[in-house]
Amino acid sequence: MPSQKIETGHEDTVHDVAMDYYGKRIATASSDHLIKIVGVSNNTSQHLATLTGHQGPVWQVAWAHPKFGSLLASCSYDGRVLIWKEGNQNDWTQAHVFEDHKSSVNSIAWAPHELGAFFGMWFIGWEYICFYRTC
């Protein structure tokens, strides 16, 4: 795919961009507390969804392997990790909310799909990583 400029519609700094497994959608994380899903193909892009649920800047987003369906994880300064699930096309809901932490969750990543629907996260000021199973 040739390079292209994509308008995200965010009103503040974008901290992360993640492309889905098929290269057809991107998710963006921003200081405006929002996650945007944008469809991309050839030289066009189309806003598909805006996900609201964090009460602080969203630092990172990560797509799960498609074998688990359309799942997206997000982490934020608000100390929460949200797992988003797409039901009908572009209809996203919060499937899981992890709020066991009292400080910013700065990074999140899914485990290789062969291990199941696990993800790990890193917290500011913590010296270890937590792992959770989502499905």
UniProtKB/TrEMBL annotation:
Domain of life: Eukaryota
Gene Ontology cellular component annotations, sorted alphabetically: COPII vesicle coat; nuclear pore outer ring
One GO biological process term: COPII-coated vesicle budding
Protein name: PROTEIN TRANSPORT PROTEIN SEC13-like protein B-LIKE
Family label: Belongs to the WD repeat SEC13 family.
Species assigned in the record: Salix koriyanagi
Gene3D superfamilies from the UniProt entry: YVTN repeat-like/Quinoprotein amine dehydrogenase
Organismal lineage: Eukaryota, Viridiplantae, Streptophyta, Embryophyta, Tracheophyta
Ranges of the WD repeats in the UniProt entry: 51-85
Keywords, ordered alphabetically: Protein transport, Repeat, Transport, WD repeat
Coiled coil: none
Family matches, as PROSITE patterns: WD_REPEATS_2, WD_REPEATS_REGION
Any GO MF annotation of the entry: structural molecule activity
